[in-house]
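We examine the record.

___
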Amino acid sequence: MEETKQLATFAGGCFWCMVKPFDEQPGIISVLSGYTGGHVENPTYEQVCSESTGHYEAVQITFNPEIYPYEKLLELYWQQIDPTDPGGQFYDRGQSYQTAIFYHDERQKELAEQSKKALQEIGRFTKPIVTPILPAKTFYPAEEYHQHYYKKNKAHYEGYHVGSGRAGFIKAHWGEKNEK
């Protein structure tokens, strides 16, 4: 019997910090770091960081919705970012580090809009939720050295996760259990 697979694509600032939380969940088949939303084919990391391609650093998740539904992915996504920051994420500034949910079909769009509205309504954040919900575009995998960076360069990843301000923000807003 073939496994059910779907795609989810999320931009949440530096993609190094967006892989580990999803990679550790049941039903996640793969998590790729890469670039999406821009106008240049096959961009490089240097091109994306130059802020000239229109791309976001993002992760593309292949998942089994019967084990880990899209709604749970959205819930976990919101807990990894500052959804009120329009200028980037934590230490990383600029368009390529902005947040976005890229939907792959109308159902994902609907669920993303519902989750964004619910997050705003619970009042966890005093500022408006500014993360846009956009149609998925071509996703270009990042260079190999960026893939699963948290495993390949554990000490640097941990230092960056804390030093960028992400770890403290997550802990302050979501509690100890979500700080990875």
